[in-house]
Amino acid sequence: AAKLDDLLHAAVNSRGGFFSAADPETFATELSGVLKNIVARVSASGTAAATSSAVLQSDTLLYTASFRSTDWSGTLVAREVSGTDGAAGVLKWDAEQILSSTLPSARKIFTSKQALLGREGVSLSGVLDAAQLAALSVNPTGAAATTATAADRVAWLRGTEHPGLRSRVVDGVTRRIGDLVNSDPQFMFKRDFGNTLLGGAERSSYITFRNSATYKARPDTLFVGSNGGMLHAFHAGTPYIDNPLTVAVDEIIDPDAGKELFAYIPSELLLPGVTGAHAQINQLMRPDYTRRPYVDGSPAVADAYWDSSWKSVLVGSMGAGGRTVFALDVTDPESFDAAK
What we know:
It contains seven helices and 15 strands. The protein has helices spanning 2-13, 24-40, 95-100, 130-136, 150-158, 200-211, 213-217, and strands at residues 45-51, 61-67, 74-82, 87-94, 109-115, 118-123, 169-170, 173-174, 186-188, 221-225, 231-235, 260-264, 300-306, 309-317, 325-329. The strands form four sheets. The protein has a six-stranded mixed sheet. A four-stranded antiparallel sheet has the order 1-2-3-4. A three-stranded antiparallel sheet has the order 13-14-15. A hairpin with a 6-residue loop joins strand 2 and strand 3. The termini are far apart.
């Protein structure tokens, strides 16, 4: 009895759960209940991080991705690195807050559709193919009845609320980023991949590529896949600069820091899955939505040479969310369009 009392006190003091079970079924049921209570009260859990430099220095920023199990939304924030231990310091920007105040019509979201000569890129606000429009208009099996049309669902994906679809507004903030779990943020900067060691036209054109005005002017960018069905590209922010007119460091951040530059939805999500005639992404809009992976793979970025020129290319996958692998030309992420 004394040992049981000690266990009970330990459970209470650690804000955990305590139960006594004499058979495996009761044990499993009670343990499941305790775990559900723990998960339900988690506000935000970190998943992965990236830094703006490989060496810790005064202008290094730490980018952290996380998720909430309460509504399966995600956050991406940038903080300065404090001290020499690499601890996260002052918040520099919060992508969720910035995206919440962005007009849905101002977002640049792309996918691909079936065309005469194969697949082609298209803006989500443009004309999708007939199969995608038909699938988007179908309500998922078992979901509450709704009059939402394909156009309503496209508008929802862009960030507009709809009375028949899941609300993403919490405390006045529209949470437009899905949970970020297995997709590690990829930081793209002006990195020399060593391609000047190549011979011939590849070497000389790589030097030209890195010296071009477009390459030099492009912002550092963060790419991350979310289970809101999108790969997001965010402006990583210019590291702060010392102001010589002041004694203290003047921390200047680019006004576009944290802004979503564009997003990409794998076209597979706009088509039916193994069962049902509804688009797979329609499940995301159910008021009774339960978490599932969509774009859950980590992207990779490198410089690649084809068609006699160099480009910076992102290759991503849906991870556990699907079979699609995609490649995007991110040489100029601020000017990304359907042709990329």
